[in-house]
Amino acid sequence: MQFSTALRSPVRRQLERLGEADILIGIPCFNNQATIGHVVKTIEQGLHVHYKNLRCVVLVSDGGSVDDTREEAEILESSPWIERIIMIYRGLPGKGSAVRAVFEAANILDVKACLMFDSDLRSITPEWIARLVDPVLNDSFDFIAPYYKRYKYDGTITNNIVYNLTRTLYGYRVRQPIGGDFAFSLPLVKKFIGEDVWFTDVARFGIDIWLTITAMVNKAKIGQANLGVKIHDVKDPAEALGPMFRQVVMTFMDLMVKHEKTWKVVRESQPVPVIGNDVDIDPQPFSINISKLVNDFKTGFTNYSEIWKKIILPDNFEVIEKLYKTVEEDFLFPTEVWAKMLYDLAAAYPKWTGNRSILVSLMTPLYFARIASFVNRTKDMSNEEAEAVVEEQAEVFEKMKDYLIQRWEDKAEIC
User: Which domains does the chain have, with CATH numbers?
Assistant: First the structure.
């Protein structure tokens, strides 16, 4: 069933009674009882410290949690200067529908700034609020992305795929395109609401990359807020990020098809301003199961290599064959070949005559191989040295954009 709004009638009436607000902060959530209280309390502290004279609303947009997420948010001591609304959104289950509800509320309240924070944050501070809000309120920015310090193996999809591709295709060096913690101007919020995506997979997953790319395509004024360390519910890429790879990559590829005319003419990237002083805190390390990554890649090679040959050019496939025979400690996947393989996948995506989700799933073991290689290359590096490797990779992707366009324009179908 398609709903004309993600807001239930009682919540809409509550918003209409409020009339107007200056700042709305939305928290999409689902089964986050362990962290939701900390996130809500910290946000309200930040609003009290920095925006006591403005009218502020905190909206918990829940996906029907079966734990005590909503109850944990409700029992917090209320802040008399801040309106707190806790609701269950309507629509397809997923973060995108939760975000739609936040945007609709911001539009009803005619806010000056709309923010969004992940519900599993452990490192959020009251200063985060000001660092995201001020550029929108005071400097006319439309879109503020987070700029974090992260452990070198946190954010592997960002470091090895999304940062490289958004920078190359759309020309903005936004370091955390799927960071989850954003600020928006009202005109950009209205643009988001008007997009016809809320009954697609964007409403289920992939919303963060969709927000970032939509802002880029619409030439929004984009900045990055220096937030320091992000601590959240970290997942070992070897254990949990296969589904995320499929979700993010599928959304990205769908947007490549939609915005082909835009990204083809972008020839180089530009820096995006980072707002706020550096926060001198080091991220905490965590372990990563490189053996499982390598084994999952080799299992994928055994099962899918004949299909990979239809997508990946022969010279690139030879590298994959050699990797299959390589022991774990010598496992290195050249950046140039990784870029070509992602570009091969991107070029195959619109020509694939079968189920595209299956196509992306079949490529997931190659992502595991790339992460294993990144770990081997950077295992003795500091976070700063590993960050330099990420920047070096992004430059390689940019230099090889002509390869992408050449492969994209090959009209042969792939099945």
Answer: 9-275 (3.90.550.10), 290-408 (no CATH)
